[in-house]
Amino acid sequence: MASKLTKFKVAAAHAAPVFMDKMATIKKTVRLIEQAGADDIKLLVFPEAFIPGYPYFIECYPPLAQVAALALYAEESVVVDPGGDDMAAIQDACRRTGVAISLGVSERMGGGGHTLFNSQVTVDSDGTILGVHRKLQPTYVERMVRAQGDGSTLCNFPLASLGWNLGGLARVAGAVAMAGFEAVADAKIEALMKAHAPTAQVFVVTASNYVDETCLAWMREHLGEQDFVKEGGGWSAVLHPFCAFLGGPHTGAEEKLVQGEVDFAQLGAVKVWIDAAGHYQRPEVLQFRFDKRPMWADEKTKRFGRGVREKVEEGVVEERDEKAL
């Protein structure tokens, strides 16, 4: 582990994917990483399911009308195989630019299966895939598309270039472009992120994609007209642990890297108020435990060359206390 870099630039990629086109979106991902490198950004965070896009059609059409679309969505999803066809160009971009990333993907289990996960892939600045976090609980009709993650991927990953750990979670907020959420979605995202920052004592980078015409046109062509998802939405920002905006907030169709500078020298003052590893832990009252055993076949093998995943013993074990970015 390298010495800790106290102050550096991070960014949220406020951008839309090339909907349902894995290879085109991978190329766009590489361009955004290269842009971040040119701006001396050390960590770039992408939206949920950026490759190949969030499957908004599951909110809009009857299940039996979606079978072909769901099969195609699996084909366009990402197999996270280090050096494999889907990740090689992205790993190379991180290596060339010195940018670490947290990349949201629809992850397809290897081996040609059709089981999918809502995943975040952490790639370090040397191109190493440190690991994958699979969303524990798919939300609402997302359960029709995604399998459940397990406790083995609920962990943080050490970024060697920065000396800090990176963790990620998908939080339920709703898209502003989706029927029923138009008036509240941005406010919900902001509230959830501002709650997470002080309670976890972390800097938060929030990346939310907007719905563009590419997405809507694909749904019209393949599934017909619908009136549930509109063009627009998205809310991205960089937050201090005490909820101050370090970058953004930014919303709407203008694509940009929402940048902010984090300064870990400020964490001492934060921990004076709240220290989850110390005076806020209250181990005599609460014990945080979960099952870290891998449940899915591909998680039972060592898929990644470096990371925090040690050999998992049988049984329920306590989670280690780790700082997160």
Automatic annotation (TrEMBL):
Domain CN hydrolase positions: 8-264
Keyword Glycosyltransferase assigned: no
Indicate whether RNA-binding appears among the record's keywords: no
Keywords for the protein's UniProt record, in alphabetical order: Hydrolase
Q: Which PROSITE patterns match?
A: CN_HYDROLASE (PS50263)
The GO molecular function terms of this record are: hydrolase activity
User: Which superkingdom, per the lineage?
Assistant: Eukaryota
CDD domains (UniProt xref): nitrilases_CHs (cd07564)
Q: Sorted alphabetically, which InterPro entries does this protein's record hold? A: C-N_Hydrolase (IPR003010), C-N_Hydrolase_sf (IPR036526), Nitrilases_CHs (IPR044149)
**Which family, according to UniProt?**
Belongs to the carbon-nitrogen hydrolase superfamily. Nitrilase family.
Supply the name of the protein.
Carbon-nitrogen hydrolase
Which organism is this entry from? Schizothecium vesticola
